[in-house]
Amino acid sequence: MTIPSAPDLMRPVLTAHEDGARLRLGDLATRVAPTVGVSEDERTQRQPSGDYVFTQRVGWARIYLEQLGLLNRVIPGEMQITDAGRSLLRASSAPATASAFFDVRTG
Fold first, then answer.
1. Strand, coil or helix: what is 49?
2. Is residue 105 pLDDT above 60, yes or no?
3. pLDDT per residue over 51-67, tens digit each?
4. Residue 54, exposed/middle/buried by CB under 10 A (0-12, 13-18, 19+)?
5. Which domain holds residue 15?
6. Model pTM?
7. What is the CA radius of gyration of the chain?
8. Which of 20, 23, 55, 105 gives 20 to 30 Å between its CA and that of 77?
9. How far is CA 103 from the centre of its chain?
10. How far is 79 from 65, CA to CA, in rounded Å?
11. Residue 72, beta-bridge partner list
12. CB under 8 Å to 107, separation ≥6 — which residues?
């Protein structure tokens, strides 16, 4: 399996916050990996910079969700779902694709 792109990780990242937990990036990556079928070997793949590919992509998904107002930075390094994020997950028309997430903000 290939590692999903950051936009493709947006819904799983938001869902991982659904319980209201304040999550650091490493904990979030650990929580999301099994839900998207990323193996331990894939989790340890590195960019030329040395960063973990999967963790970096989860981080970008988290940033996109923060920019959309669906996650909030509680303290440096920790994010938590917002009321808007919870509402979006509860909605029957909650976006399943990255482009639909961005349409939520612009539409």
1. coil
2. no
3. 999 999 999 999 999 99
4. buried
5. 7-106
6. 0.87
7. 13
8. 105
9. 17
10. 10
11. 80
12. none
